[in-house]
Amino acid sequence: MSNYLLTTDRLYLRPFQLEDALGFYTLNADPAVLRYTGDTPFASVAAAAAFIRHYDHYAQYGYGRWAVLDQRDTQFIGFCGLKYHPDTDEVDLGYRLRREYWGQGMATEAARACLDYGLDELHLNRIIGRVVVGNLASVRVLEKIGMQRVGPLDFEGQPGWLYEARCFVKS
Prior knowledge:
The longest helix is centred in the middle third of the chain and has 16 residues, at about 105-120. The protein is of the alpha+beta class. It has 6 helices and 8 strands. A 5-stranded antiparallel sheet has the order 1-2-3-4-5, sandwiched between helices. Strand 4 and strand 5 (about 90-95) form a beta hairpin. The protein is about 30% helix and about 30% strand.
């Protein structure tokens, strides 16, 4: 288990590996998965592999989005993690799972693990979540893990909500 960054009751999270390219391609090929993201699908499995090869957030910032694996068979089921945005000096929590894993609490489980890791282990002061207003499942995930809605935002040209969690240092 030493190659897993985080372990939850049902999931393993670890840095992306080239072996994730097919799963990543398949995940992003599902229009329902991308519906609220503003992203476009990878053109090919090779494009997903190139993304993984050039993903430099771990080296550059010490964290990033991580592959989410089902513990039962260690299959790639999506990603979850933290992303630093240097233009705004913000860290956001993001997640995306294959559709067959929706409605089982797995996004909440992965998101909670990543939020806790960011606040407790990385000692980040603030982590945000951005969500399109109509993405009720994602709103529920952010609220279940204790993030607070702080206001509206423009999410890729659509109305959205900004959520946040803050690290409060005990004195």
